[in-house]
Amino acid sequence: MPELPEVETVKRGLEKLVITKVIKAIDNDNPKSFPNDPHAVQQFAIGSSIVSVSRRAKVLLIGLSTDYTLMVHLRMTGQLVYVGSERWGAGHPNESLVNALPDKSTHVMIEFSDGSHLYFNDQRKFGWVKLLPTALVPQDPFMQKVGPEPLEPEFSDEVFINRIRRRKGTSVKAAILDQTVLAGVGNIYADESLWGANIHPSAIVGDLTDTQLRLLKKEIVYVLKLSIEKGGSTDRNYVDAEGKKGNYIDFARVFRREGLDCPRCSTIIEKSRVAGRGTHTCPSCQKK
DNA sequence: CACTTGACCTGTCCGC
DNA sequence: TGCGGACAGGTCAAGT
User: For residue A47, is it left (φ>0), alpha (ψ between -120 and 50) or beta?
Assistant: First the structure.
């Protein structure tokens, strides 16, 4: 589920909600969701306070006062939801979810000393919460190989073109989904940005011009920024740190709009399969 | 090496 | 209504 804009939205929410909170207890029901040595958890997490929340690619990093970090990947269906000690008042945008937590998909539960909680929910159990020394975060194999952050200034046209051209034999959709090319694009923003650039997802990278790739890079940055403004995309499971849904999907041009009109030319949007993923295109705007 | 496919899980939806 | 199969936003290991 969550791609860069969703993880960024969770990060911004958590930053406001959990900094300075002291961890009183952590429970989990599944070692895949919480693959940590209980002794390390006891020694370096329990009793520590949260000093920072940051994001790299689709990974959330919750910094602790012990110089350890809780590294969180939401994968497909993960949620990280904060619930205050008095819950949320009536009228909360997602009252039914928040007030029902924990539920059967809650796999990690962090209790703070003030009685509030942070719940890690994950229907499909692909996500995880790992505790490790902060100094070792950069040594993580994924962190070692992940590409540049698309919303940082160093993500220039040259950087993007050089990196994506390493994948010259593959489809452009597979290339932008490749986290070593750039960080944070998933299926939604791949389809949305390719539509924006008038490029067919199955086009081979080696057949695209630098002009097309520059436009694609611009569209990737555009859709990611727009989605952050809208609080991300809720297609199924995604919610932010307060349990609220995102609104980008209302602004999507092709994603999940098969059978509807292309907003640019009114041709009916099609759904197909590219790079093993459900793929949405306008057959008129995005010629093969 | 470059690239593609299947696996990891659970839930939901669609066709018979 | 029940059942089987396909599919769902990510990543990695194993295969070609």
Answer: left
